[in-house]
Amino acid sequence: MLKPTIGIEVHCELKTNSKAFSPSSNTYGEVPNKKANVIDLGYPGVLPTLNKGLLDLGIKCALALNCKVTKEIFFDRKNYFYPDNPKNFQITQNNTPIGTCGYVEIEYDGKKKKIEIEEIHMEEDTCKSIHENDYTLLNFNRAGIPLIEIVTKPCIENEKEAVLYLENLREILLYAGVSDVKIEEGSMRCEPNISLSDSDKLGTKIEVKNISSISAVKESILYEIERQTKLINDGVKLKEETRRWDDKSKTTILMRVKETGNDYRYFPEPDIPKVIIDDKWIEDIRKTIPLLPNELRKKYKELGINDVTISSLIQNKELSVVLNELIDMNINPVLSANILTGDILSYLNKKYITFKESNITIDNIKDIVNLLDNNEISSKIAKVIIAELLEKEGDVSTIIKDKGLKQISNTDELVKVIENILDNNLKSVEDYKNGLDRSIKFLMGQIMKETKGQANPKVANELLISELENKTKL
Amino acid sequence: MNELTKEEVYHVAHLARINVTDDEVKKYQVQLRQILDEIERINEIKVKTDEILISPTDNKNVYREDIGIDEDVDIFKNAPRKSGNYIEIARFVNE
After folding, report:
1. Given a cut of 60, is residue B94 above it in pLDDT?
2. Which of A1, A96, A192, A464 is the most exposed place for a label (fewest CB within 10 A)?
3. What is the DSSP string of A156-203?
4. Whose CA is closest to A324, among A306, A347, A303?
5. Per residue in B18-64, pLDDT tens?
6. Cα A169 to the center of its chain, rounded Å
7. Can you tell me the distance from the alpha carbon of A398 to that of A164, in angstroms, rounded to the nearest whole number?
């Protein structure tokens, strides 16, 4: 029985201000060829200068991915002749990767599994090439942008584990604040390698490139398993090769054979002296790492937030950051989380804007949650206030005053309303007498309708029950 | 040691992207072997990774702060062709 073994290489652009080995700005979406200098263009005689921000983020990645940080590092030259890198070598790390022996934890089939990370290393990106019919266009804004390459051990057993690993990895890097991890913009690139074997010995490794989404990673793995199985069963001896995913035909296509292994003639980069990373540096970086998704999930669960809301929060990092601020201010976490992932999130999604771009503020939410928490407004009124604040900047107390939304907790006033409703709904009173609890729900609805949602639900509920009891006794 | 095979010389020439004539290949089969033999002698010295001299100086931890500085350089000065804001070259991917 042929069994697949999968390893994945991921490249992520690091969110530094400047490039890895030149002071040009690290940008995306700028006018082409505006953010590049002679170092990025690979002119003869230029010298690289190492960016401290690259080292900091490299260490941060290593820590976030549970790696051992290499204390003494240097860079290497990987030699290859290709127009996307005119100096004919890429500065990378071959001998002393910044991190080794890490892992990302996934949960598959109810079981926890550690996807082991062989190593992570820092390197520079190539320029972006756009291929037209008979020519190629080059944009050097991307040349020299720092990358972290994350290499797993061949320990992934199927496409589902691969997807879970990539989703978790993406979340970790996003929350750690090291990369935008936008696959569609190319700031995260995934390259799975797949081999099949019917024994403990690994089969022939086929690498797949040019994948632009996590779902395409899944499709490409399934396609390769099927393709290779058929070839092996037909008695074909596979050769190691790199293939390209074609999104249109949903197939992989053999790529031009590039240099491999020894042909890269790695040697230490002589223009960048060694870097010694001491414990203090590592600890200083460790302190800058916020709670990562798995730790956040645990924290939210302990605070009583439900699973659906938690996963919605984790998927929307900005809202999770807002919630953490509210929690730090001792605001009710469950109410805050429900508001954020409810009306606010659906509004943001509808308008394609971020929380920061919207009109509502953290202070607004703090006020609303406190009022809800003290039963001073109903959730229905909260909805009205939120809708108002999303459309226009304002403050909660003014809206309550202007719109006359103050909750009715005045007993006399509510009793009057309730008596009136009971008189007009004798059937429900009868139902209550006969033990039908749902009549209470109906009558509460009527009270809310009558008071335009302003009745204090807790007080109204208590008054309703005592009024009903009175009537039953009669 | 034996001289290099013709295929090995062509492979090295390909990596360097140079054309070689048959006469040159014959010459390089011998000369490259002599170079490799010298390198073998150097390889006999056992050096640990952390002892590798990567730079002629003892400098350590030389880096710059992470500040973006964009010079006003004419990127297209030595470009073969220009197309809009892009450098245009011969198409290089054969699929």
Report:
1. no
2. A1
3. B-SHHHHHHHHHHHHHHHHHHTS----TTTTSEEEEEEEEEESSSS--
4. A303
5. 999 999 999 999 999 999 999 999 888 888 766 777 777 788 999 99
6. 9
7. 47
Going from N- to C-terminal start, the domains of chain A cover 3-280, 291-403, 411-473
CATH of A411-473 given 3.40.980.10, 2.40.50.140, 3.40.190.10, 1.10.10.410: 1.10.10.410
Report which secondary-structure segment, H or E, holds A79: strand A76-79
Compute the residue count for chain B.
95
CATH, domain range B1-47 = 1.10.20.60
**Tens digits of residue pLDDT in A345-398:** 999 999 999 999 999 999 999 999 998 888 778 888 888 899 989 999 988 888
How far apart CA A330 and CA A370 sit, in angstroms, is: 10
Instruction: Quickly tell me which residue has 């054969």 as its tokens.
Output: B94
B contacts of A25 (beta carbons < 8 Å): 68-70
Contacts of B68 in chain A (CB under 8 A): 17-18, 23-26
Which residues of chain B make contact with A50, given a CB cutoff of 8 A?
Answer: 62-64
* Cβ contact, residue pair B89, A37, below 8 Å: no
Q: Are A463 and A408 in contact (CB under 8 A)?
A: no
Give tens-digit pLDDT for A182-211.
988 889 999 999 999 988 888 999 999 989
Using an 8 Å Cβ cutoff, are B3 and B33 in contact?
Answer: yes
pLDDT in tens, A280-317: 999 999 999 999 999 999 999 999 999 999 999 999 99
